[in-house]
Amino acid sequence: MAGEGIRARQKEHTRQTLVREARRMFAASGYGSVGLMEIVRAAGVTKGALYHHFDSKEALFRAVLAEVQQEVGAAVARAAEAETEPWDQLTAGCAAFLAAGTDPEVQRIMMIDGPAVLGWSEWRALDEESSARHLAEALHALVADGTLPDQPVAPLTRLLSGAMNEAALWLATSDDPADLPATQRALRRLLSALRVP
Fold first, then answer.
1. Pfam families this protein is in (predicted)?
2. Confidence (pTM)
């Protein structure tokens, strides 16, 4: 039994090392410029160990992207949970999403390579699991308390999520530091227009 536990920990350590090294390399050079053998060497494992965990470079990238998206989702949730009022939670979470997208690692992996490598549909499904779920929950609460007009939340969630993803994609290609605060102000105005007068 003890041997099985040790092997399981070793397997998990190998997997984490592969994801960590792949993430570092994808962030620095982009998915297309990184070869599997470079990742294997950097992780200090064999090619067989890599294929034990991931059947392709794309599968490894998917794990890296899922990790990045989960971290962004957690940052959004932390920002929202730091506020007490539901409206402030929504605006803080949205601002945190845009701010997270300015991190060069997040930009490269999540905003640039993610849709290109996995395709828009799969990338969007991963986004739905991480950030969009929090947005839907916040919007449901605001409709329930009367801050937003009574309406179906699913289309509103997709409209706002799409707008924020598009803004984050644009910010990923911008080198003007004034663009983030300007985008966050524009988003606050857009959200404010949705409120019940």
1. TetR_C_41, TetR_N
2. 0.86
pLDDT for 5-14, tens place per residue? 778 788 899 9
Amino acid (1-letter code) at residue 65:
L
**Residues 94-118 pLDDT 10s:** 999 999 988 999 989 998 899 999 9
Q: Which residues contact 171 (CB under 8 A, 6 or more apart)?
A: 98, 101, 102, 107, 179, 180, 183
Superfamily of domain 1-54: Homeodomain-like (1.10.10.60)
> In the chain, how many H helices and how many E strands?
11, 0
DSSP code per residue over 27-87: HHH-GGG--HHHHHHHHT--HHHHHHH-SSHHHHHHHHHHHHHHHHHHHHHHHHHT-SSHH
**Tokens in use for 193?**
């227009």
